[in-house]
Amino acid sequence: MTAPLLTMTGIQKSFLGVRVLHGVDLTVRPGEVHALVGENGAGKSTLMKILAGVYTADAGTVTLDGEPVRFGHPAAAQRAGVSTVFQEFNLLPDRTVAENVYLGREPRRRGMVDRRRMVADTRRLLEDLGVTGLSARARVRNLSVAEQQIVEIVKAMSHDARIISMDEPTAALAGREVALLYRLIERLKQLGVAVLYVSHRLKEIFDLCDRVTVLKDGALVDTSDTADLTTDDLVRKMVGRSITGFFPPKLPGTALGDVRLRVTGGGNTQLDGVDLSVRSGEIVGFAGLQGSGRTELAHALFGIAPFTVGRVEVDGEGARIRSPRQAVRYGIGLVTEDRKTQGLALNQSIAANARLVLDAVRPRSAGRAAKAVPGLLSSLELVARGHDQEVRFLSGGNQQKVVLAKWLVIEPRVMILDEPTRGIDVGAKHAVYTLIRELAAAGMAILLISSELSEVIGMADRIVVMRDGVISGELDAARLPADTAEETIMALATGQNTGAAR
Amino acid sequence: MKPTSSTATARRAPLSTTTVVYLALLGILLVGGIVVAATGDTLFSNANLVDMLTRSSLLGFIAIGQTLVILCRSLDLSVGYVVALSSLVAATTMDGDPARIPLAMAAALGVAAVIGLVNGLVVTKLKVNAFIATLGVGLIVKGYLDTWYAGPAGEVAPAFQAFGYTRIGPLPLSAIVMVALAGAGIWFLHYTRTGHHMFAVGGDTDVARMSGVRTDRTVIVAHILCAVAAGVAGLLIASRFGTGSALVYDDGYDLESIAAVVLGGTYLLGGRGGIGGTLGGVFILATLDTVFNVLSVDPFIKDVLRGVIIIAAVAIYARRRLTRKPDRFGGHVDPPPRPAPGDGAEAAHVKGGVA
C-alpha cells in the first residue's frame, strides 16, 4: 500500500454557529480516483472548499505528502498542487484558453509576457491530456461546457497539480461529453494525479473510482473500495435514515380533481416531447440531475423561455404563455430556484415584496387584495421585526415565506416550486411542506421540483423524472417500494438502466 | 476527441469588434466624403484632415486612459478636471521659460498621477462606486480650480507650443504622439502582466482574485495611467492655448471619452475591448464633428445625430455578444441530435463498463 498523498483528519467547520462538519477524515492516495458522496447538505462541498483554500477549517489537520499544510487562499492551494474544478467555472469568457490557464502567473521573458510560450505551454498540456482540436487561442466564450471543463483541468495541470478535486463534473455535460471526461480522468490517473470526485451519479462512481468516502450529515460514514460495494450498499450508506415522519401526511379531504395543467408535445431548444398533466389537489414531484431540464420546464411553463412547440392547457382552456406576465394571468405561480436574485427585491420591505405580483398584474384590485397579506404572513409563521423590514435581513426560511406569500395572495391555480427548501433550516422546511399540503388540499395543482430525492418521495403523489431535456419516466409514489425508491429514480435520472426506464 | 474541434471553430465570431469599428469608420468616412462632395466641398482637403486629426488627438489621449479604467470595470469622471488642472500646472510652472519645460511637464503629469492614485484608492480601498468616487474627486479639483483660477493663468514657452502646432505634412505632431501613446497602450495590455490582469479584474474580479491576481493594485494602476493620459491632454491644451485654462473642464471630455471607448467596442462593464477599438471610436467621433462642421449642421441636430450613432453602435455590439445556453433540441425538429453517430461506439463502450 502506497503512502497517502493527502490526509485530512478531524476536520470541523461551523457556519454561524451551525456545525456542518463534525470531524471528518479523508485520505487520498497518489493516482487514485476517490469518490466523495453524500446527500445534499452532507458536507461534501464544505470539505472540498476547505481543501481548496476557500474556507479554513475550525479544527483538524491537512497533510500533503506527510507535511502539514494550511491554505488561506485558493492560489496557495494551487501552488501546493491542490486544484479544484468547481461547478461554476473560474474562467474569463472573453479571454483565450492560454490566457485563462496562465492567469495570475503569465510567463515572462525580459519583463514582457511571453505570449508565444504561454500558447505553446498550453498546447503541450492539452497534448499531455490527449486533447486534440481545442485551440489554445480559442476564446473561452466560444467553447462548450465540456471544453471549458477541459480548460479548468488544464489550468490545474499547469500548476503541476497532484490532486484535482471536481465538484459534480458531469452535472452539466451531455452523454457523449461524459465519455470524454472519463477518458480525461483515465489519463490523469496515468499521469499519477489523484482525483477527488464529488458526484451524485452512482454509475460514474462505480465506473471511475477506486475508493469511495461517504459523508452523512457532516460526519464520516466510512471509506471503502468500490470493488467491495454494490449500488445498494452505497445508497444505504448515503441515505441511511428513515424519511417517513419528517414529511407531513396528506391532509384529510385532499381530493384529486380535474386536470388543471396539461402539456402535450411541449418542446423548445432545451426540452423535447414533454407530455404532462397535473390535477387539482395533486403534487407532482420532478426529479432529475442538475441540468436535466427541470428548471427549463418551469421556465417554459412560466413563459420565461416558452415552449415553441406543443400545447399548454390550464383548466381545459388552451393557454398561450409567452411571458411571465401572461403566465400569472393564467393563474400560474413560480417560486424560483434562486430566491435572492429572482424571487425577491432584497432591499425592499416584506410588505412591498408580498405585494409585488399583485401590484404588477392586478393593480386595480391590489389595494383590496393586499389586505390579506398580513394574515397570510402570520399564517406562514413569518418571523420578522415588522412588515416594513427589508427582506435582505431575514433568514433564508423567512425569505422563502415572503416569496410564497407573494404568490399565494393572487390565489394561483397552478404553483410551480423550484427547489423550495434549498438553503433553509429544518423548521422552515417543515413549514413549507405543511403549506404545500394545505395548498393541495385547497385544490391547487402543484409542481414540486427538487434535487433532494427524499423530498420528492416524501411529498409527491406522482414523480416525473427528467433526463437531458426529456421526461425519462413517471412513477406513482404510492406504489413505489420505500427501500428502492431512490435507486429507481436515480436509474431513470442517469439513464443507467435504460431497459427499466421506459 | 473529435467533437471539440468542430464546435470550437463553428461558433467562432466572424469578425472581431475592432474590425467592425474600423469598418464603421471607413463607412462614415465614405458616406461623409460623398455627402460633403455633394455640397461641392471636399472632406479630404488638407484643412479638414488637419481639423479631424487635431480633434482626435485631444480626445484620444483621454480616451486611451479611459479605456484602461473601463476595462477594469471602473470609470473616471474626473478626467475633464485633470485636463484643466494639468494645463494650469504646466503653464504656471513653465511661466514662459523654455528651460523649465521638462520640470513643468513632470509637475503636470505628477499632479495628474496623484489624482489618479486618489481615485484608485477611493474606489478599491473605500469601496466607493467609481462613478461617485471619481465624480467626487473631480468636484474637489473643480472647487480648487474655481477658487484659484478664475481665468487663464501662466504662460508656456514658445518652444512648447510646437507640441500643439507642428505638422508633418497633414499630420499634427499631437496626433502622432497620440497614436504612439495608443500603440504603447496596446503593447501594455498585450505584453505586461498588469495589462493582462486588467482584463481579468474587469471580466470577473472573483476569478482574478482566486487566481492570485492583486486586484486592487491593478485597478489603482489603471486609474493612475488614466489620469496621466488626461494630464498629457492637459499639456496639449496648454501648448495650444499658450496658457493654462481652467474652463476646459466644461468641454465634456469626461462623457465624450467614455462614449469613444464604448463606441470602440470596449464593454462598459469591463473585461473586453481594447485601445485599438477606442482609437477607432475617437476617429469616428472626430470625423462626424468635422463633417458636421463642413456642412455647418445645426448644433442641435449634430448632438442628436451623435447620440443616435453612439446608441446604435452599442446596440449592435450588444446583439453581437448575446450568448445563450447551447441548444439541446431544435425546438421544432423532432428527433433529438444525440447520440452522435461517430461517438456511438465509445459511448456504448463506456456503458458496457457498468458494474
Automatic annotation (TrEMBL), chain A:
<dbReference type="GO" id="GO:0016887">
    <property type="term" value="F:ATP hydrolysis activity"/>
</dbReference>
<dbReference type="Pfam" id="PF00005">
    <property type="entry name" value="ABC_tran"/>
</dbReference>
<keyword id="KW-0813">Transport</keyword>
<dbReference type="InterPro" id="IPR027417">
    <property type="entry name" value="P-loop_NTPase"/>
</dbReference>
<protein>
    <submittedName>
        <fullName>Ribose transport system ATP-binding protein</fullName>
    </submittedName>
</protein>
<keyword id="KW-0547">Nucleotide-binding</keyword>
<dbReference type="GO" id="GO:0005886">
    <property type="term" value="C:plasma membrane"/>
</dbReference>
<dbReference type="InterPro" id="IPR017871">
    <property type="entry name" value="ABC_transporter-like_CS"/>
</dbReference>
<keyword id="KW-0677">Repeat</keyword>
<keyword id="KW-1003">Cell membrane</keyword>
<feature type="domain" description="ABC transporter">
    <location>
        <begin position="6"/>
        <end position="242"/>
    </location>
</feature>
<dbReference type="InterPro" id="IPR003439">
    <property type="entry name" value="ABC_transporter-like_ATP-bd"/>
</dbReference>
<feature type="domain" description="ABC transporter">
    <location>
        <begin position="254"/>
        <end position="493"/>
    </location>
</feature>
<dbReference type="GO" id="GO:0005524">
    <property type="term" value="F:ATP binding"/>
</dbReference>
<keyword id="KW-0472">Membrane</keyword>
<keyword id="KW-0067">ATP-binding</keyword>
<dbReference type="InterPro" id="IPR050107">
    <property type="entry name" value="ABC_carbohydrate_import_ATPase"/>
</dbReference>
<dbReference type="InterPro" id="IPR003593">
    <property type="entry name" value="AAA+_ATPase"/>
</dbReference>
<keyword id="KW-1278">Translocase</keyword>
From TrEMBL, chain B:
<dbReference type="GO" id="GO:0005886">
    <property type="term" value="C:plasma membrane"/>
</dbReference>
<protein>
    <submittedName>
        <fullName>Ribose transport system permease protein</fullName>
    </submittedName>
</protein>
<feature type="transmembrane region" description="Helical">
    <location>
        <begin position="130"/>
        <end position="151"/>
    </location>
</feature>
<feature type="transmembrane region" description="Helical">
    <location>
        <begin position="78"/>
        <end position="94"/>
    </location>
</feature>
<keyword id="KW-1003">Cell membrane</keyword>
<dbReference type="InterPro" id="IPR001851">
    <property type="entry name" value="ABC_transp_permease"/>
</dbReference>
<keyword id="KW-0812">Transmembrane</keyword>
<dbReference type="GO" id="GO:0022857">
    <property type="term" value="F:transmembrane transporter activity"/>
</dbReference>
<dbReference type="Pfam" id="PF02653">
    <property type="entry name" value="BPD_transp_2"/>
</dbReference>
<keyword id="KW-0472">Membrane</keyword>
<feature type="transmembrane region" description="Helical">
    <location>
        <begin position="300"/>
        <end position="318"/>
    </location>
</feature>
<feature type="transmembrane region" description="Helical">
    <location>
        <begin position="171"/>
        <end position="189"/>
    </location>
</feature>
<feature type="transmembrane region" description="Helical">
    <location>
        <begin position="277"/>
        <end position="294"/>
    </location>
</feature>
<feature type="transmembrane region" description="Helical">
    <location>
        <begin position="52"/>
        <end position="71"/>
    </location>
</feature>
<feature type="region of interest" description="Disordered">
    <location>
        <begin position="327"/>
        <end position="355"/>
    </location>
</feature>
<feature type="transmembrane region" description="Helical">
    <location>
        <begin position="219"/>
        <end position="241"/>
    </location>
</feature>
<keyword id="KW-1133">Transmembrane helix</keyword>
<feature type="transmembrane region" description="Helical">
    <location>
        <begin position="20"/>
        <end position="40"/>
    </location>
</feature>
<feature type="transmembrane region" description="Helical">
    <location>
        <begin position="100"/>
        <end position="123"/>
    </location>
</feature>
